[in-house]
Automatic annotation (TrEMBL), chain A:
Source organism (scientific name): Actibacterium lipolyticum
Top-level EC class: oxidoreductase
Domain Aldehyde oxidase/xanthine dehydrogenase a/b hammerhead, chain residue ranges per copy: 240-318
Listed GO MF terms: isoquinoline 1-oxidoreductase activity
This protein's UniProt keywords: Membrane, Oxidoreductase, Transmembrane, Transmembrane helix
Transmembrane segments: 12-30
Gene: iorB_2
Protein name: Isoquinoline 1-oxidoreductase subunit beta
UniProt-listed Pfam families: MoCoBD_1 (PF02738), MoCoBD_2 (PF20256)
Enzyme Commission numbers on file: 1.3.99.16
Matches recorded under Gene3D superfamilies: Aldehyde oxidase/xanthine dehydrogenase, a/b hammerhead, Aldehyde oxidase/xanthine dehydrogenase, molybdopterin binding domain
From TrEMBL, chain B:
Protein EC: 1.3.99.16
Name of the protein in its database record: Isoquinoline 1-oxidoreductase subunit alpha
Keyword check for Metal-binding: yes
This protein's UniProt keywords: 2Fe-2S, Iron, Iron-sulfur, Metal-binding, Oxidoreductase
Parts of the chain that traverse the membrane: none
Entry GO MF terms: 2 iron, 2 sulfur cluster binding; isoquinoline 1-oxidoreductase activity; metal ion binding
Domain 2Fe-2S ferredoxin-type: 1-74
Coiled-coil intervals, chain numbering: none
UniProt xrefs under InterPro entries: 2Fe-2S-bd (IPR002888), 2Fe-2S-bd_dom_sf (IPR036884), 2Fe-2S_ferredoxin-like_sf (IPR036010), 2Fe-2S_ferredoxin-type (IPR001041), 2Fe2S_fd_BS (IPR006058), Beta-grasp_dom_sf (IPR012675), Diverse_Oxidoreductases (IPR051452)
Length: 747, 152
């Protein structure tokens, strides 16, 4: 890691010096929420190594190191920089930049500690600041955890403001006019007489100026871009077919490839017969790769056809072969020696159960789920004269570099990763498996660029899915209120599975097993959440909203059961139990938006659910009709508190997308395994929501705190429980297993 | 084999059972149509043959008996088709990978039915999957485009 890190630094310096007249500005003054001496020591070295603004003779390029896989990361990063640097929107160019530890994500590790987002005490704050330092040391350049905005909100505005100050100083030096009398406008410094000096003209002088260590940021009242609807920078390309995704990348002389590896993930290849493939039309080469075989051809379809014709003798899966055996493992994990955490333990649940007449009990199950972004995994790789170039989309550029170095045996300075936009990810591109394969294929045809594309079937059956989980819940109600809630959740550890593949280890408990459950702001008198770590089964990974994606369902549905058992109103009782003011406000907001309490009419029902995840309290109300042919989802209301909505249009789009994601998978998606292999292979049996099923989704962003948060994930967790709670309200049927269509039809 | 795409005539030397999608993408370098499933379940590969939306992953190139239009031929960044302009206005795209197929499907719908009802839109557009969940914006953009086109 550190070797890769230092090499990545050097590579960047070479890269930027090569641009004639170029100048790069970085973050020179970065105030920590809690100051740490380590950051003071690092600040000097970092100054030249955290470049976000690059100016050369052709204009300004903003470096946007968080990957854009559809969530609008490039545009929001550009807006933060441009707001302070003063650029015209139509002149903005962005570049993801090279992989570099300088682009560490200070917020992605900050929430990896056992303190709920509602805890703003001294210890919790220090732990989060420590997470920032850990990220900085490890050079964790990661996109994920809805952390792009929280990480960038100050950092990138400071970088933009710093660059602007240097350009003003450069103009003062060039003209001899006092800096204080100069201003900027749309990429130029404006002299008192109205003369404009473009940033490009000033770049050569600016390059020699020492940047200020402290800069003032614009007050919010003067914001020109932030907080207002933006036209995302990628919109035009995406509506005209001119946006180039990783899968569209083309090189002269490029050949096309695909792979097939053991669908029993991690299993061996005992043997294969590729005779038919080798002689198939257009096939150039059949190449053994780790865990399977690659086919290199002169057309992707021909490669697919040939790969399909290979006969394999796959070895067994290194995990139980079918669902029954896996559920057995999960079910027996509710034990003392598999106990992973108990960070929530209020009151005395055992005493409450002993003194109660009736204890409600329920068991819940949720399935494995594939990420299945619409663009299947792919990479273009060229190995030529000891230099490796990789064009692909990844959420983990530095780990991807390390993987390519390991496979190729090359030093990282000879590896060039060009990060592409991608057709979704949802966590899938936190893995480097497909990049390793593409490097192996490129090694087999040195000098020739290859484009490796997975078939949809390969993609669906070689995902690292969201884990299956089981919950065992007990509760007591008293005097019309929820009195005790004891939730045990058993799940395989995403964090240790994923970090293991990146050659890292996970110290301590896995927060993902209980995220979205243990950290909910309810003042239930006796309240306990316990995580149990199931032994590794299928290798698993982060799936949009990670632990909270499933725990939102497990936690909120049983809470809903208890509230109904108490005879209380689902909305009123949640609000009464909620001690956290911002969370209460989102519940009150959806109550008002949905006109909660009015009569919906016959065969209708509504459900509410709440999950605080990634620091964002989110409440959703779903309204359904029980039609003779099945459940129709009529309308969804969402309220989320993010501190500041930076782009209202993209905010709404992301929230709606998260709701569709949450509802669609809850309705009809699961990945099941038989004989060690996933049974679902394409979108015919892993469908999600289709347009005709999509309800109207009304969204409200609350801005009542100063806690700036990201919105890519938080609308996912409450969607499934709000739907299940609505189905209960409309039909009286309490469904405790996903997908819901195992028990009820949808129209 | 002759193939006309976006007004340009091409001579292709490929097996007739190659899906049109892969002839477009890998033989002609036309990458607007996307590969998502290969089995007509997602719509990412949607193009027009004589103005009618088809799944290019499931049409053999040897069976193409009309002029092919891809997203690149529908309109350009400088001169967008009304459907593209509506998509731009509503900022429909998230990852955008499904959107060239969505736009081609919508353009074909409006060509055939300039004033679609909500149900017509549901029927025409439900074969196009969007994993990012942009459906609310797709609906709104189809309506905007329909209104625009009916103005003339
Ligand atoms: S790729 Fe043709 S419909 Fe999915
Ligand atoms: S915008 Fe991503 S799949 Fe539709």
């Amino acid at each position: 890691m550190s070797r890769i890190g230092s090499i990545a630094r050097r590579t960047f310096l070479i890269g930027s010096a090569a641009i004639a007249g170029g100048v790069a500005f970085g973050v020179y003054a970065y105030k920590q929420p809690v100051r740490n001496p380590l950051t003071d020591d690092l600040a000097e070295g970092e100054a030249a190594l955290t470049p976000y603004v690059h100016i050369d003779q052709t204009g300004v390029t903003l470096i946007t190191p968080r990957t854009d896989f559809g969530q609008g990361a490039y545009s929001v990063q550009a807006a933060l920089l441009a707001e302070e640097l003063d650029l015209a929107w139509e002149d903005i160019r962005v570049d993801p930049g090279p992989p570099s530890p300088a682009y560490y994500n200070g917020k992605v590790a900050a929430e990896g500690f056992p303190f709920p987002a509602t805890d703003t005490g001294f210890v919790a704050k220090n732990a989060r600041a420590f997470g920032d330092v850990v990220s900085k040391f490890m050079g964790l350049q990661i996109t994920g955890g809805s952390s792009t905005v929280p990480d960038a909100f100050e950092k990138l505005r400071v970088a933009g403001a710093t660059a602007r100050q240097v350009l003003l100083e450069a103009a003062a030096q060039v003209t001899g006019i006092a800096k204080e009398t100069l201003s900027t406008k749309d990429g130029s410094v404006v002299l008192p007489d109205g003369t404009m000096l473009s940033y490009s003209e000033l770049a050569p002088v600016a390059a020699g100026i020492q940047p200020p260590r402290e800069v003032a940021l614009k007050p919010e009242s003067e914001w020109r871009y932030l907080g207002k609807p933006m036209t995302r920078l990628d919109t035009l390309g995406k509506v005209t077919g001119t946006a180039q995704y990783g899968i569209d990348m083309t090189m002269p002389g490029m050949v096309y490839a695909t792979v097939r590896t053991n669908p029993r993930l991690g299993g061996d290849v005992n043997g294969f017969d590729a005779t038919a493939a080798e002689t198939a039309n257009g096939v150039l080469k059949v190449v053994p790769v780790t865990g399977g075989v690659g086919v290199i051809a002169n057309n992707t379809w021909r490669a697919f056809q040939a790969a399909e014709a290979i006969e394999f003798d796959w070895g067994p899966a290194p995990y139980p072969a079918d669902m029954e055996a896996m559920w057995e493992k999960v079910g027996t994990s509710f034990s003392k020696d598999r106990k992973d955490s108990r960070f929530k333990n209020d009151g005395d649940v055992e005493a409450a159960f002993e003194s109660a007449d009736t204890v409600l009990e329920a068991e819940y199950r949720i399935p494995y789920l594939a990420h299945a972004p619409l663009e299947p995994m792919n990479a273009v790789v060229q190995l030529k004269d000891g230099r490796l170039d990789i064009w692909t989309s990844t959420q983990i550029p530095i780990f991807a570099m390390a993987a390519a170095a390991e496979v190729s045996g090359l030093d990282a300075e000879n590896i060039h990763l060009h990060v592409q936009i991608s057709g979704g990810s949802f966590g899938r591109r936190l893995e480097d498996d497909f990049i390793r394969q593409a490097v192996e294929l490129a090694q087999a045809v040195e000098g020739v660029p290859i484009k490796m594309t997975w078939s949809r079937e390969e993609d669906m059956t070689h995902d690292f899915p969201r884990p299956m989980q089981m919950a065992r819940a007990r509760g007591v109600v008293k005097d019309g209120h929820v009195e005790a809630y004891d939730l045990g959740i058993a799940a395989p550890s995403v964090a240790s599975s994923q970090m293991g593949r990146l050659n890292q280890s996970l110290p301590g408990p896995d927060i993902a097993i209980i995220a979205g459950a243990w950290d909910q702001p309810f003042a239930i008198p006796n309240y306990r959440v316990t995580g149990y770590r199931v032994p590794p089964l299928v290798p698993v990974s982060s799936w949009r909203s990670v632990g909270a994606s499933g725990n939102g369902f497990l936690h909120d549905c049983f809470l809903d059961e208890l509230i109904h058992a108490a005879g209380a109103d689902p909305m009123e009782e949640r609000i009464r139990l909620c001690w956290h003011a911002p969370s209460r406000r989102v519940l009150e907001a959806v109550a008002e938006m949905s006109n909660w309490g009015n009569d919906l009419g016959p065969d209708r029902g509504r459900g509410v659910a709440f999950t605080l995840s990634f620091g964002v309290p989110t409440a959703e109300v779903v309204e359904v009709t029980n039609t003779p042919d099945g459940i129709r989802i009529n309308k969804v209301y969402v309220a989320a508190e993010v501190g500041k909505v930076l782009d209202p249009v993209n905010f709404e789009n992301q929230v709606q997308g998260g709701v569709v994601w949450g509802l669609g998978h809850a309705m009809n998606c699961e990945l099941t395994y038989d004989d060690g292999m996933p049974e679902q292979t394409n979108f015919h049996d892993f469908e999600g929501m289709r347009l005709y099923q999509c309800p109207e989704i009304e969204v409200r962003g609350l801005e009542t705190t100063d806690d700036i948060r990201g919105i890519g994930e938080p609308s996912v967790p409450p969607a499934a429980p709000a739907l299940a709670n609505a189905i209960f309200a409309a039909t009286g049927q309490r469904i405790r297993e996903l997908p819901l269509n195992k028990h009820i039809d949808f129209v | 084999m002759k193939l006309t795409v976006n007004g340009n005539a091409h001579d292709l030397d490929v097996e007739p059972d190659m899906p049109l999608l892969w002839a477009l993408r890998d033989e002609l370098g036309i990458t607007g149509p996307k590969y998502g499933c290969g089995i007509a379940m997602c719509g990412a590969c949607t193009v027009h043959i004589d103005g009618v939306a088809v799944r290019s992953c499931s049409v053999q190139v040897g069976d193409v008996d009309g002029d092919v239009t891809t997203i690149e031929g529908l309109g350009t960044p400088d001169a967008m088709h009304a459907v593209q302009a509506a998509w731009f206005e509503h900022q429909v795209a998230q990852c955008g990978y499904c959107q060239s197929g969505q736009i081609m499907q919508a353009a074909s719908l409006l060509e055939e039915n300039p004033a679609p009802t909500d149900e017509d839109i549901d029927d025409a557009m439900s074969g196009n999957l969007c994993r990012c969940g942009t459906y609310p914006r797709i609906r709104a953009a189809v309506k905007t485009a329909a209104a625009k086109l009916s103005e003339g």
